[in-house]
Amino acid sequence: MTTIFLVLLIILAISTVFFLTAFFQSPNWLSRITVIDTTSVMTACAICLLAALHGNEHLLDAALLVAMIAFVGTTAVLHFMPLDERETE
After folding, report:
1. Which of 63, 65, 78, 88 has CB 3.0 to 4.6 Å from 44, enough for a Cys bridge?
2. Nearest Cα to Cα of residue 5 among 40, 74, 39, 55
3. What is the DSSP track for 25-68?
4. Phi/psi of residue 38, each to 5°?
5. pLDDT tens figures, 33-67
6. Cβ distance 85 to 29 under 8 Å?
């Protein structure tokens, strides 16, 4: 069972690296914000996997907190971004 969790954590780490390279190669801010939001969701998933691996339910609270902060941060950035920067090129 722990092998499955470790394989899933490795897959999440590899996909995080791919998303971070996409962050540096993205042409506009909207794509970068989407990459940051996706990376924070993957971080919350990794915390949930660690909670299941160690049997620690307190880590689930941390994962929920990370997901809520990511949602509020993404929404706030998009709310205050000027309309001309939201358009794709």
Report:
1. 63
2. 55
3. H-SSHHHHHHHHHHHHHHHHHHHHHHHHHHT-THHHHHHHHHHH
4. -65, -40
5. 889 899 999 999 999 999 998 999 999 999 999 99
6. yes
CA atoms within 13 A on the CB side of 48: 13
Q: Is 44 exposed, middle or buried (0-12, 13-18, 19+ CB in 10 A)?
A: buried
The angle formed by the CA atoms of residues 21, 48 and 42, to the nearest 5 degrees, is 15
pTM over 0.90: no
Contact 19, 38 (CB under 8 A): yes
Instruction: Look up residue 64 and give its two tokens.
Output: 């929920």
- 60/52 Cα distance (integer angstroms): 9
